[in-house]
Structures are given as C-alpha cells and as structure tokens.
Amino acid sequence: MLEFNNYYIQDQENLTDLFTNIFVIIDDIYNDIIPITVSNRRNIKDSKLSDSEIITISIVGELLTIDSEKAFFSLLKR
Q1: What is the pLDDT of residues 33-52, one digit of tens each?
Q2: DSSP track, the chain
Q3: Tens digit of each residue's pLDDT (9 = 90 or more) over 16-34
Q4: In 3D, which of 42, 11, 46 has the Cα closest to residue 20?
Q5: Contact, 75 vs 66, CB < 8 A?
Q6: Considering the entire predicted model, what is its pTM?
Q7: pLDDT at 66
C-alpha cells in the first residue's frame, strides 16, 4: 500500500517548490500504479508532457482554487 507519511512536506517557499513537491509525489505514485498498456502506448515518444506533469498541473490548479484554465495559464506565464 502507499505510504503517505513518506511524503510529509514541511515548508513551501514559492509556487515552484509547490509544483516540484507535488510532482515528485504524483510521479512516484503514478509509476507504481500505471498499467503496462498505458506505459507502453505507441505515441509516448510524441508527447510534450509526461502524464505525471499533466496530473500535477491539474492538481495545483485545483489547490489554488483557480476555476478558469485561462486564468491559471496566465498565472503560470508570470
């Protein structure tokens, strides 16, 4: 089973740290539960972002309670 106590985060200095910490957690969990058919799909080389990166972006957007994708993207561009 997943050990959530291993992922205790003490401080968040800025948005970059938040993204990094959440990405590490998501990537570890995702790689543990990903089915073989998904990890060996044909178009994996053509992707610009990994599945873990996409999930991380979605989760951070939800955590920041930004409802609009356009507003979230403009925040990320700064």
Answers
A1: 888 877 777 777 787 888 89
A2: ---GGGG------SHHHHHHHHHHHHHHHHHHH--HHHHT-GGGGG-SS-HHHHHHHHHHHHHTT---HHHHHHHHH-
A3: 888 898 999 999 998 888 8
A4: 11
A5: yes
A6: 0.70
A7: 78
Distances in Å between the alpha carbon of 57 and those of 9, 36, 68? 18, 23, 13
Length of the chain in residues, anyone? 78
- Measured at the CA of 77, the angle between CA 17 and CA 60, to 5 degrees, comes to 45
Max CA-CA distance within the chain? 39
C-alpha 33/C-alpha 48 separation (Å) is: 22
